[in-house]
Design goal:
about 200 residues; mainly alpha; three-stranded antiparallel β-sheet; about 10% strand; disordered C terminus
Length: about 200
């Protein structure tokens, strides 16, 4: 009896799952320096705001809750940040508020379609990813999740194609001479796209 899953399918799926957990790092503004950790607290805790997203509190209140609960950082959703800006909020003011409360923005959740097969949709997705990165930089953000949106619910590109598309995403984060890094639960530290 066979399972119907080929080795190629397994490797493709594994690559996409790993890619979903990776995040690209982009340059931090000088004002968003991350405080050093003490020896008794070698790592910080970050609130993934999806856990309170259903309450529709808005990013300002989410930041306040994270600080009051003792978190060191937040991981906002791009849609929440976009809604804040559409309502007249200032990203500069939000970044200052986050810093004043002793928090950092370690990552964010965006859903740009950077990996899809449709060339027009992929181009639009990469533009969205670029805008998302610029938004995060404005509030001191450091990384953005890169889930394979659009290729997660149907057969996606083969692994080499997915890798090329991920590299393109990393290159967007590497503009202005900065080196991208990928992280997946501490793995791939300081990895660079192939030259």
């Amino acid at each position: 009896m066979t399972s119907g899953v080929s080795r190629r399918d397994l490797l493709t799926t594994a690559g996409l799952v790993c890619g979903a957990g990776m995040v690209g790092t982009f340059p931090l503004p000088a004002a968003a320096a991350v405080p050093a950790r003490s020896k008794d607290k070698p790592f910080g805790l970050s609130l993934n705001t999806s856990t309170i997203r259903g309450q529709e509190l808005g990013i300002v209140r989410e930041v306040e809750i994270a600080a009051a609960a003792g978190y060191d950082a937040i991981e906002p959703w791009m849609g929440t940040l976009d809604a804040y800006v559409k309502q007249g909020g200032s990203l500069k003011d939000l970044g200052k508020r986050i810093g004043d409360l002793g928090l950092s923005v370690e990552s964010a959740i965006g859903f740009a379609q950077w990996i899809v097969d449709d060339e027009s949709a992929r181009k639009s997705g990469l533009e969205q990813a670029k805008r998302d990165m610029e938004t995060l930089i404005s509030i001191g953000g450091r990384r953005i999740a890169a889930p394979p949106v659009g290729a997660h619910d149907k057969p996606g590109p083969d692994l080499p194609t997915a890798a090329v598309r991920y590299r393109t995403l990393l290159e967007i984060g590497a503009k202005n001479g900065h080196r991208p890094r990928s992280r997946s639960v501490g793995v791939f530290e300081d990895a660079q796209p192939p030259q």
